[in-house]
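FIELD: query
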Amino acid sequence: MRYDFVVIGATGMQGKIVTKDLLKSNYSVLLCGRDKSRIEDTLRRNKNTAFAYLDLRDKSKSISTIKNSGAKIVINCADGDWNLNALEICTAANAHSIDLGTGIMSMLRKQLAMKKTLAKKGLIHITGCGSVPGIGNVMLNYASQKFDTVDSVKVGFAWDSNMKKFVVPFSISSILQEFTVDAPYLHHHKTRTIKPMNSVVRCYHRAVGRENQFKVGHHPEAYTFHKFLERKGIKNVEFYAGFPDHSMRAILLMIELGFGGKPIEIQGVKIEPDMFLTELLKRIEMPKGYQEVENLWVTLEGKYGGKKHKILMECIVPPLLGWESAGCNIDTGMPASIMAQMIHNGFIKKAGSWSPEEIVPPEPFFTQLGNRCMHVFENGKKIN
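FIELD: result
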């Protein structure tokens, strides 16, 4: 059987969301990963699917798997550390590809530096196709067209739940990095860093309310936003993460207990505390009736027509019927599915390696978000 799409990392949370969204859109999908047992139900319920074992460390076999699938588009939902491997594999397999982004700037630069190579082969690659990066990048593109010059951009996410119970919002390893790794930000054209917990402020966000937010690293926006808006004079870029109090307290306790620390050796075996924590937290079941809401936001400040100008873009992500187990993670998996479908359907045509703000047309993308009940606001007015 020939497939429309290949999903790498299909056995993880985001891979499952992407796959489900593609199947609901009537596409066929080859699910690739290392643990078939985690998606047996999907395979059993959907005749337009199959599973193939795929390990990105084995480039030769991975290339063969993609070629044999017949798919022309690959959605990489594996950990961001493997994005460059995945891009090289997809390029060798003559397939378009997208991923969810990486906070490793050296890797991101290498991906974007493949623009000419991909253009010669007629292939499209988009990196950072989830929420932030992803939806935020497209909102940036949309709003920036209404400025003559842009001085400052702030971007981030804020979320809350209807129950004050700790549920892992997304990758706990990524979360621990957001709380502990020095956060880079652009200030007057120069990159500076700050410890996340030294930047905490209390802020209000639509649909979420007031909660703590703080600058974080492990995000590519400081680099890609600056690159995209350099011609408009951008000076300052900051990324913020917002967590509800109950979740923030739990995460800080995990860090205090050492789960974000260095490897430890037990009976001759080295154990990564965050990897152990990842497996341990899988035992926590989502409480019955638990729901999440998230606000993805971008604020631009600059000038238009010689006057000061400011635009706040927001994407509100509500609980969705039938997606309860995914929580707010739908705003990462669904955009990836949408962008891949836009390549498939010819809305995105220009070959090369891109960040979403450079290549994804905002209006049709926002329309697809709206079809999934994710509404985009410009200065408080819904535009999709």
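FIELD: remark
The first strand starts at residue 5 and ends at 8.
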